[in-house]
Amino acid sequence: MEKFKVTFFPDNKSVLAEKDKTILSAAISAGVYINSVCGGDGVCGRCKVILKKGKVSQQLNGIITEEERKNGVYLACLTNIHSDLEVEIPESSRINFEKLSPKEIDERLGNLYSKAEDIHPVEQRIKEGIFKHSPFATKIYLELSAPTLNDSISDLERIYRALRAYEEFPVIQTGLFNIRQLGELLRDSEWKVTLTLGKRNDTVEIVLVEPGDTTNKNFGLCFDIGTTTISGQLLDLNSKKILGTKAAYNQQATFGNDVITRIVYAGQSQGLERLHQAVCNTMNQIIRELVAENNVDLNDVNCIVCSGNATMIHLLLNLDPTHIRKAPYIPTANFLPVLRAAEAGININPRGLLSCLPGVSSYVGGDTTAGVLSCGLYQSDKLCMLIDIGTNGEIVLGNKDFLVACAASAGPAFEGSGVTSGMRASSGAIQKISINKTNFEVKYSTIGDKKPRGICGSGYIDLLSSMLEAGIIDKGGKIKAEGRRIRQAETGKEFVVCFKEEADSPADIVINEPDIENLKRSKAAIYSATAILVKHMGLSFPEISKIFIAGGFGTYLDIEKAVKIGLLPDQPRSKFIFIGNSALAGANQVLLSNQAMLMADNLASKITYFELSVDPGYMDEYGQALFFPHTDLGKFPSVKF
Amino acid sequence: MEKFKVTFFPDNKSVLAEKDKTILSAAISAGVYINSVCGGDGVCGRCKVILKKGKVSQQLNGIITEEERKNGVYLACLTNIHSDLEVEIPESSRINFEKLSPKEIDERLGNLYSKAEDIHPVEQRIKEGIFKHSPFATKIYLELSAPTLNDSISDLERIYRALRAYEEFPVIQTGLFNIRQLGELLRDSEWKVTLTLGKRNDTVEIVLVEPGDTTNKNFGLCFDIGTTTISGQLLDLNSKKILGTKAAYNQQATFGNDVITRIVYAGQSQGLERLHQAVCNTMNQIIRELVAENNVDLNDVNCIVCSGNATMIHLLLNLDPTHIRKAPYIPTANFLPVLRAAEAGININPRGLLSCLPGVSSYVGGDTTAGVLSCGLYQSDKLCMLIDIGTNGEIVLGNKDFLVACAASAGPAFEGSGVTSGMRASSGAIQKISINKTNFEVKYSTIGDKKPRGICGSGYIDLLSSMLEAGIIDKGGKIKAEGRRIRQAETGKEFVVCFKEEADSPADIVINEPDIENLKRSKAAIYSATAILVKHMGLSFPEISKIFIAGGFGTYLDIEKAVKIGLLPDQPRSKFIFIGNSALAGANQVLLSNQAMLMADNLASKITYFELSVDPGYMDEYGQALFFPHTDLGKFPSVKF
């Protein structure tokens, strides 16, 4: 096969690429990072490059403007190599992890670190105190008796003896690393040491031995590793106090927006390693910031608990996710052993432990287990439902007697991705909107009261509901009104939420018919999943006493409006409880209590997975939900426009 | 402190050394290996170097001859640096591990690999079959059902489910390494795999997952790591068959002959690391030879069991042995966790496991535990004794109700070290001797019927006994006869066993009065230890029904003569059972049976350590034993000269 030399500037990195391969694949091989949110499908338009020299062929799809075409701009993913090439990557298309500081990468990704106040751990208050305080890593201070001729047991046995006098542990393990240090450490510290104990795969491990009394320095982290957003919390394991919470954009998003695109990318040369690195980078960055802000030494962070869907956990641990995507959809492991964080590339104490919450199946992961754990649904006498709205939506139905879960591929629209002016729930995102029914003028508020930069999930719920009420769109989602904010664009009709003059954005902030279609499909996927699950179990919505709503909506979600657009079932509003990030809350509980860890194992074994696509009624139900709020208005009696 | 540049040739390696430091210590810092069996005490005479340039001061002790002095020969250990130096190391003084092949190093050390036939596992026959066959590493072949939509548990859970159907293991662990391979491996092998299971610290670990059925390839090693000699065996873990046994000189001997010298050396810069490397080199070399001769793939060697004294085990695992030597004599650990062999630097399958037999105290190690296990003393209704004759001699007294052990620092004389013409029990060693009572002429036989190169332990026992019978030496060990074989040397009178003309040796093979003194102290240390131990327990020799004799005497030990010189107590000869290398035999049993492994733990906890030096009668008893056979002839009624 003929090969050509492709050189990327300003990096000046070259690679040999086969004829007809895309410029994007050559860039990946060269280790040059080009932004590509859609994973090379030609739809996101973020991988624009400038051809300086050489012959190519291209697929045109309307994303490149006439003017750009004149200036030699091509989409890297849709342009094929026909000769040696010289390619310039403009700043706007690149994510140069090597050159940028973590903060700069973040800025580039339009990301924002949230302060602790921004993420209210509502769910923590709900279940506060139900599990005994027995953190994943525990410190014990021992004053050992010095050896004598009459008491001459070895150093290691001396420690075991003292530990067993303290508490009867069934099996204690210690690695060679700690044993190697014992002789000097015990004598230098005059036989006064602090042990860090970690629960590890049904045994207790001596993770660390430190001189003196360091019991007051015992910190841990919990994480929710989302496809789009990664959230982390630093805790004082003694006081159970949350010292800080941060959320950051998952750097993996540059390789594709959903788990399927990432699994495909993982199959490419070095793809898995890059995805693994990306999640580690994001987590390590969050950790660095959390410890710095709280004056905590990284060496005093002894453990970490992670929740995430099966694909995210596979990528974190560098496990091949291929078979999650291929029938019959088998992950490598749902229950993972406790590892050292360092084995996964996470920087805490080098001996520190990492535990991942157990998952149920390829599409109902440890984040769902964490959600069930944190909302307490599994303890309820009455029937409850948990709806976790995300790129992969999960719905759990049950009570103390049974638990059944399904997954709905909702897409990232409600996380502000894959829609024209979408953005994450971060600074500058429009989150509340109202529209004047007469003149269609818009009022909005943004997160942090900044100039608007885009619209986040809760903003879209408000926007759709307001457009329906104002009669701007019909039940099918078509724009039928006229006015100064409504215009015809290449991609169909669009409504201008905010003109660029008043925005912190290079373009008007708009919603167009394809966006509405996209959001409609998302809400239809979530709603129909809840409906099918209830029907499958021979139940009905009125029998459900509580509906927990979880997801990355930041601090705001208008339940009323979510029902109005048909995202949530039309049930008395008092049934709904918005619990924010339930996956993070569950990880927090596991970090603080070994009882919660055991309960998570128990729950993951107990939850039955229901595969929606095998239900014969699913496509019908989904089709009927592709209206606002629904084809069958009898199902939404309280909704009137 | 003034520093001088010392350059060693032919290596051309330089190092900066402080004024007044010895040339030997400079060589150690420079990473140049000079032979130094006595560890720098100035007595072995092996560290001769030639001073080419520079000023030194030296201690004279008669080892350097007048002629050598003229030629600029110095003992590196007794020569102090006073200026920049250029030093030539003659071939005879060097052990250049980097340049020599393992075989050449071995040749240089006067070492010899024994064939399996040379080491008769007498002791294995004794206890054959008392433990259930359940090797340290077990292989299980599984034909898994392929996953379907209705049976969609993860790859790892699928393996666990099949394993639990096979046998109910309490806790199964698997490391990330194996989990990472599962997805591809299971599918490529069409769900037919072989698991290697290892018992590890009260849990079962999946050590390896291999495609297809490889159960017929499961090998293991057992080792006795002696201060002087290291012996290893390769076993087929399925058939329990010993495929080969090899012994080699412990390369550590170049850094000192006994454990105390080595502990001191370990405290020097890089000393511990070098000692650790030396034992690894020796073991890896034995392993390479064993697998090559038996056409076994190193990757099919899944586990290794080691016995050795506390110092040897510390050095193997790179644990600081300092406190073994300092009161109150505390090892870092007597009971060690199961490790990966790779963690200790031993080359078998990279995931393969290493277990060390548990020890009792700093001076009664896992080799003694192995000895007790293999001779079956702990099961006996009647009183038994185990005497393991080595550089560090160990004596165990007991039966099924109690076990008490002590250690006697016998020195390496009976291992053929520290005596003028001594050598290990290997090719060319004189092992049997008789002397004509009239003309003092000598008859001898050597191991392998080669020209004599020196005298080994059993040869010295024969020689002393024959010299006593012929009246060449008196009860005190002084040479009192005259003849062509008896002459006055610088170091006192000596007896020529073999003139160099008929030997494979640059000098006559002799025994001199200091040698006899040395051997006498060794036998006195062993005998008095047995006597004190018996007395301490309120018992007497006639009450003992069996006396097991273990040690590195190769295949030959004349019990009659050992009693005659007063090494062994004067008891009916039928009580004595020579069991060869009992430490290796015990390690063999632990390798083949998990029951034996548990029993070893049990025994190490059960054996009481008795510190000889605290017994007020010990010095008296030792002093009385410094005669052949003993001061009190009433204790040796059968011995007549």
What does this 3D model show about the protein?
2 copies of one chain form a homodimer. With 641 residues, chain A is an alpha/beta fold. Chain A has a 6-stranded mixed β-sheet, with helices on both faces. A 6-stranded mixed β-sheet of chain A has the order 28-27-18-19-20-29. The termini of chain A are far apart. Chains A and B meet through helix 5 and helix 6 of A and helix 5 and helix 6 of B.
Total helices of chain A: the number is 17
Largest sheet of chain A: 6 strands, mixed
Q: Give the overall form of chain A.
A: globular
Main interface by residue count: A-B, 48 and 48 residues
Mean pLDDT of chain A, to the nearest integer, reads: 88
Query: Structural class of the helices, strands and pairings of chain A?
Result: alpha/beta
Q: Looking across the biggest beta sheet of chain A, what order are the strands in?
A: 14-13-12-15-17-16
Strand elements of chain A, count: 29
Helix proportion of chain A:
25-40%
User: Which stretches of chain A are low in confidence, meaning pLDDT under 50 for 5 or more residues running?
Assistant: 100-127
Termini gap of chain A: 62 Å
Beta content of chain A comes to 15-25%
Rounded to an integer in angstroms, the radius of gyration calculated over CA atoms of chain A is 27 Å
Oligomer: homodimer
Summarize the structure.
The structure is a homodimer of 641-residue chains. Chain A has 641 residues and is an alpha/beta fold.
